[in-house]
What does this fold into?
Amino acid sequence: MHPNVTEIDHPLMKHKLTILRNAETTTDNFRRVVREIAAMMAYEVTRDLATELVPVTTPVADCEAPVISGKKLCLIAIMRAGNGMIDGMVELLPGARVGHIGLYRDPETLEAVEYYYKVPSDIDERQVILVDPMLATGNSASAALSRLKEDGVSSIKFVCLLAAPEGLETLAREHPDVPILTAAVDSHLNEHGYIVPGLGDAGDRLFGTR
It folds into this structure.
């Protein structure tokens, strides 16, 4: 595995990921579990945030206690499936700003095509967490990362539920500076560009579409 890739090895997360893989999982349960896993991943991806001590008066005494310092956070969802992860992360990071990048995958070339882009005006001053449930070919994630870098973002992490080796290779080649956190690395992509064994189309399963 590439040195910039972290596969989160937690029994509870693996258990919940198995629920998502199950074709019998209903839309409402799929959506709920994605939100739960995303909250757990928010905990992991923010593990190295800088802190500083501030004075606090507890019911017992005065003391100094740590708070998060440094650049403010911004969560960016690759639409539309990424929206399903944002809700869980915002529960843990309510002060974070939220942006959206709309990309669709050309069915013939599998290349990413941008159709929407909306982020905070001070995005270049923020730490960005880019989310998308599936890292398949890596083309959409790479395009989104390039777009953010064009806007001056220098601190970015990418978070996904599942990754394929092909997608990891793409990001290692095109964005070797970006750390990647995933709940699992699966076997490969099939001829349609889907992760195997995967969990199907995350967007369709989140929103009940086909």
Residues 5-47+71-207 form a domain with the Rossmann fold fold (CATH 3.40.50.2020).
